[in-house]
Amino acid sequence: MTLKLFNTQSKQKEVFTPIDPDHVTIYVCGPTVYNFAHVGNARPVVVFDQLVRLLRHDYPKVTYARNITDIDDKIIEASQESGVSIGEITEKYTRIYEADMGALNTRLPDIRPKATEYIPQMIKMTVDLIAKGHAYEKDGHVLFSVASMENYGELSGRKLEDMLAGARVDVASYKKDAGDFILWKPSSDTQPGWDSPWGRGRPGWHLECSCMIEDNFGATIDIHGGGLDLIFPHHENEIAQSRCAHDGAALANYWMHNGYLTVDGEKMSKSLGNFVTVHELLEEFPGKGEAIRMCLLSAHYRQPVDFSRDGIAQAQRQLDRWYRLTEGVDATGVAVPEAVLDALRDDLNTPKALAELNALAKVAADDDQAKAQLKAAANLFGVLEQNDWFDASAVEGAIGAEGIEVLIAERAAAKANKDFVRADEIRAELTEQGIALLDKPDGTTGWERK
After folding, report:
1. Secondary structure of residue 143 in the 3-state scheme
2. Percent of the chain, pLDDT > 70?
3. Does residue 248 sit in helix, strand or coil?
4. 446 in Cβ contact with 365 (< 8 Å)
5. Residue 199 above 90 pLDDT?
6. Cβ within 8 Å of residue 112, ≥6 positions away
7. b (16+ CB within 10 A) / e for 180-190
8. In the predicted model, is pLDDT for residue 159 greater than 90?
9. What is this structure's pTM?
10. How far apart are CA 106 and CA 126, in angstroms?
């Protein structure tokens, strides 16, 4: 068993060697909860859920943490615009976020720390950074001094001198250098704040992850993950403050980042009208979160993935076939085929793993062992775990799986009685409902939703 992961920091694929082989630790940056999550936000959730599934298959214990940012300027702005308290907004959208991600068959992390629960730890780290000469206070702000750290910019591959030379001339009056970032900032009377040695204020965004990792795991973890957009400045700044607070100790030994998401070939944005939330997709494809999951895993996690409704429909049809093939199959104790494991252990190569699943499905129709292997492999992939797959998509007025089977049986009887008019009527009725029958010379072998 050899797991290889691409490490953003070293810019190459490396053999994964955990700090403790009996306990793997992983932390992934989570949401800022002030609105519905768009489908791009779901990609890292699905990608790292897939990684954690693999890690739990291969290692005796895995602890997975994903934070909730529940104090942020965007949240404050949403509260002021709506007149709804910050607590109500963050609680509401945390529940919706976790429910929507759960509908994509992702499992809740073991630890889900909230930023507001770690204010004392953030103040302490800030105090330590000032004491060690890596941070300074000015006008109620505390900033990290990027010039105080050797190798700042190593994760993103940016050189400090280039970043400072390219910075805008207009620099905030409380900054020594343009690249310095906020650890603590003052709060007005209308903004949430906490008492600190520098006055009433609130933490900067980058600080929370470093403190959550330290508090839950210690100075260094095995894997830190997130989207490509977080490499700079967020993860770069996490590394800076953590390493300087811990005398050079690495924050994480492996850094993993998933690629961007496009919609029908274009970057997703509200201005283009292609901005879509996970919540909307789940209403549009009720009970079919696994199909959305498959779309998000269809491309290698480090590459862009083009997301479309046609892709969801195609994935749904594929899952329809797999669910019918494995109906009533018990995969308990069945080993996942090595070809699937090899694909996933090669830097989470989900396209290759999907190809192996499709190969299993082709032989599963007449092979009970292949059916069990398909189900076991699909479960590791995070699909074929739904007991009501066919009925779950039924909306008001739509026909369910049981009704479809009744009509198929009635059609078979009509054909046996040479009542071809009725047989054709049933087929037309099902077609109108979006049901395609899979007919062979010896009868109907199955069906799928279009």
Report:
1. strand
2. 95
3. coil
4. no
5. yes
6. 30, 65, 66, 67, 68
7. bbbbbbbbeee
8. no
9. 0.86
10. 34
